[in-house]
Amino acid sequence: MTLDPVLLTLDLIGTFAFALNGALVAIRLANVDIIGVLTLGTVTAVGGGIVRDLMIGDTPPATFSDWRYLAVAALGSMVAFVLGSRLDRLTMPITVLDAAGLSLFAVTGAHKAVEFGLGPVQAIILGAVTGVGGGTIRDMMLRQVPTVLRQELYAIPALAAAALVVLVPSFGWGLFVPVTAALICFTWRMVAVVLDLHAPKPLRAPHHED
Predict the structure, then answer these.
(1) What's the mean pLDDT in 13-30?
(2) Distance (Å, rounded) from C-alpha 70 to C-alpha 167?
(3) Which of 126, 113, 94, 122 is nearest to 193 (CA)?
(4) Cα dist. 114→40, 97, 125, 127, 167 in Å?
(5) DSSP for 75-99?
(6) CA distances from 50 to 26, 69, 87 (A)
(7) 150 pLDDT tier (thresholds 50, 70, 90)
(8) Where exactly are the structural domains of the chain?
(9) Whose CA is closest to 102, among 48, 37, 63, 178?
(10) Model pTM greater than 0.85?
């Protein structure tokens, strides 16, 4: 199997993971019906990729030119719809799926940006955008502060994975670089969740009582 088909497979796995995650979040946080579950699951799964493709000029976006993306997103959403009553109380499975999708999308997003001739900085940013974009759109639709802005280390692991894909020469190494990058992002994200690690926050001004 060549690198491109493998990256496509990783992209589809990430799509499924994010769709399942997005739908489960919707079930847990909002009183939505089957259309709401499908919509929020699909937006989570493909939103970041659509933003990336539009920014690099790949039109129509892969989501609409390759039927597999929407099919996999719908499948993940429906799995969540069917099993939601069993899974909606389980925080950790949702978090694991989110970390998996974040890792895979950061890698494939950065790789695609490089293929379209973008510079290293732009490719790294778009890799992270691919990873966090769908969840950000979903959170905004649910009127929540996006996860990337409020939870444990989230965007930083995605940026690190994208940087590894962009900056480390992969010739002769096969899948070592993208797989390693995804594993680093996933592990970093999960360690941050378990240990409750956060990115630095600004110092708050002292509260003065009148």
Answers:
(1) 86
(2) 31
(3) 94
(4) 29, 26, 11, 10, 10
(5) HHHHHHHHHHHHHTT-HHHHHHHHH
(6) 20, 11, 28
(7) confident
(8) 3-195
(9) 48
(10) no
